[in-house]
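dumping this here before i forget
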Amino acid sequence: MIRPLELFVALRYVRSREAGVFVSFITWVSLLGVALGVTALITILSVMNGFEGELRGRLLSLSAHATIVAADGAGVDGEALAAAARREPGVAGAAPYAEQQALLAHGTEMSSATLRGIDPAREGSVTTIARSLIGTQLGALVPGGNRIILGRALAFQLRVGPGDELTVMVPAAGGDGELTPRIRAFTVVGIFEVGLQDHDATLALAHLDDVGALMARRGASGVRLKFDDVLRAPLAARALAAKLGRGLESRDWTIENASYFRAIRIEKTMMTLILLLVVAVAAFNIVAMLVMVVRAKRTDIAILRTLGLAPRGIVGIFLSQGVLIGWSGALLGIAGGVSLAANVGAVVPLLERTFGFRIFDADVYYVTEIPSRIEAGDVLVVAAVALGLTLVATLYPALRAARTEPADVLRYE
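structure:
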């Protein structure tokens, strides 16, 4: 534990100019280096969190929090299963669905797609697809109408728009076990756009009854679920599948979109490691500064030792000096990082107007604004690492100062 005398001497050394202008310069560089590194780290992590939240929102606009399907791939009684799921605590919505890989054709244009049959009356309880529809509503999908809604990129590939007809083909097992295509004409009644290529270019929506008739299979593929807490959906879905009956299994949004979130985690990890190097360099500057201060204060150290100050006290003095500099920079960086992350939505437009460029051009990117979400856990981890690095950086100079022999230093004084 550092005593008041040691802290007082450390404060005097921090304010002292006797060690030279160069030492003072390195002191300020070290402090600002730690502050800038921590500021950049907190800001980048907050922006990455914002992009993760934006991506999750776009993914879940069409994907439910979880699905429950038959483990053997057979159909299920969608209405009964959805009704049972809605009675469970924590379930905000449940809707049956059918899904099949299909081939869509219009004229000479063809494209593979995921054909999803939905119940328009229930779909709003599990997804926010209605917000992404362009010029139509889910109510346009009526049973027996053979109507279809396409993703914008998929419609562009097929060169179709509302009112056009296209041919939908799905594989079906014949009586002899061979696969034979089942073909039906559908009318395009609308377009949706969520801003994700995997959805906009590969997904087509139709009424559950029409998809079931095309597949020649009774029942739904499964039930799509929405929970009160999306982050608890994986555990809640597994528990619900086990409770609703044997032969059921669950799939959740973290599995279906694992590649997206794995990429974000890797990017966050790499950015964290890279920016921590900035803090580490600043911490090594503290080592260099303290070594020079120890050399400049050798006489003072010898006198203090002669007056009875133990080596432990010398360690406390220089430990306190390094910690004051490093922790001041870390705390300044935390304040700057939180402030910048909280106001990034105002700072970025200001930079764009000042320098005349666009970071995310609306003609190129779906996301045109930089999102930011500050998480207390990230701030605490960054603070702990920065404080730890600066504390470790002070140990070698402090121990070196404690090994100073008074007789050797004062012999020629």
